[in-house]
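Problem: given the chain below (462 residues), write out its structure.
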Amino acid sequence: MKNKNLIKVLGIFSLMLVLSVATWPMQAPLAQQKEYDFGVLGAFGDPAPGGGFFTNNFAPFSLNKRGELAFAANIQMTQGGSDLGQGVFVASNGQLSQIARVGQEAPGGGTFSRNVWPFLSINKRGDVVFAVSLLPINVPPPAGVNSGVYHFSRSNGTLSAVVVPYITQAPAGGTFQGAHVQPCQNKGGDIVFSGIVRTEQGTHVAGEDYSGLGMGIFRADNSGETRKVAAPGDPAPGGGSFDYATRPWINDAGDVAFDGHVAGEECLNVGGGQNRRLGCPSSVYFIPAGTNQIQAIAHQGDPAPGGGKFRFATAPQINNRGEILFNGDLTEPPGISQRIGVFLYSSGEIVPVARPGDAMPGGGNVVTAGGIIGNYTLNNRGEAGVNVTLDNDVDGDGKPDTGVYFRSRAGSLFVLARTGTVIPGVGTIVSATRAIISDRGHVAFTAQLTDGRTVLLLATPR
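Solution.
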């Protein structure tokens, strides 16, 4: 793919948001004007590395300190042809390269199917870790069955298997039956992942047949050894035992954050029953490096800062400061996933980053934050990127506006791009989704433009 010229523009960051949350001792500082260079990394219809063209979906997931972006994208072999499925790509210095794609033979056996599980992890060295389902796709299995975890080494350009379903040995015996969302690695190359194993301790839902499978968190180190982090049947803090653990994140020190559900607690039905998924929306937990001491960070039913209670808390990300960014559902029962906020655990307390009802810089109030993995990120400086749906409609298209925002460590929010933002040389934004941030403040996001194009953008601070 040919390079795109970087378009130098002045970021729209002169507006200030004062967050009047009771848990904050003082107002957030004034936002300072920021300058960014915006680069178009790709657009629907552009040639994809390895052949074919990008179509239907860009999913940026992870940016390292050098501004290298790991993302998934859908592929068609001819313009206007059928969507074959997804590939895994890296953007580095304006150049795109392919890591893997649908139809490719998988290391250890099998063939990559069309489904790459979110999220992709790229570390400081440029290594990439991801989970993907393999052919044949069994319907209807619990999600993640017959999926593997794979590692791309930038130093030697090779792709290898971390987990091969039905072959890789699980620590407690037997083999992994698959893997699921949010595999993550640190700079040392340690990998944490959601592994599916045979167990009688998994989530049992009244009125549904038990699948005989459960999901836990496992860690693979550089020596090739895989060990358990948290799995069905393990004791949970505060009593009871886990029946489900997923969505792990590891920092460079080896601290781990993850989702966990405790047997007997409310199991919210999201996305179908056990013929579709192995667990329940859950709570956020933390394990300090070198210990087995699991700590609860945000639990189902806990009071949320700013009001309301967590219906569930999910998808944590932990940085090298030990701060944890996560999604918290504030929907009133019996509803679910209608009012989601983004929260930050820091220095022993939880503060809201963006929660329903908050006024946002650039106009509008939050209806809900992005509940999909990759719609918010936290870097090692304590800065965050968030994506939200707003309650206004500046372009009059009958759809709620969306925006991508940058939160400084001091707590100020800046609008990076939102419905109606004009980026000279690129276009006017209809919608902006995802908000992937690097340690140096690069932000990657996807935007739909008024001219009909959908583009993958990288904003680089000067």
